[in-house]
Amino acid sequence: MRTADILTGLRDPAARAEALILHYFRMCNDADHAGLVDCFTPDAVHYFPPGLPGAPWRGAEAIADGWLWCVKTLGSRWTIEKILTGPQGREAVIEWTHWKTAVGEALRGDEWYVFNEGVTKIAEIRAYYASPVDKATPVNRLHEFDYEGRGYHMLPPSPPPTVE
């Protein structure tokens, strides 16, 4: 499904921003390269904390390539835990979990989104991790935060798709 199709009929900019984020995560979980590219402006940038090789990812193609690599190599699946959109829809913040099913890890964090004029594409994402990645810990998380008690996903949404 094209990004424009999911925005049809949504006039409220905040609703458009939320729908676009939800669609982006569906495209990540579906490992849909064309769908991912369609979520972004051509010159979009995805920033990450230090330590990720090749970061930041610059351009819609690079972002899509990066997430497909994660699905193929790490068995990546993603869940959104919370979404907060600004009333004008130009910015939003989410909490997410990145399930790395092939390596038995999970990483929690937040992302700040910036959208283009009209809130039809993602122009920028700034990712922040809940904690430094600890390879010895299967699920990286905030110390003593009750994820389960607050209704967070405790398992990936489904097995990853096969990526050729």
UniProtKB/TrEMBL annotation:
Report the InterPro entries cross-referenced here.
NTF2-like_dom_sf (IPR032710), SnoaL-like (IPR037401)
Name the domain of life this protein comes from.
Bacteria
What CDD domains does the record tag this protein with?
NTF2_like (cd00531)
- Extract the Pfam families matched here: SnoaL_2
Domain (SnoaL-like) ranges: 23-124
| Protein name, entry field | Nuclear transport factor 2 family protein
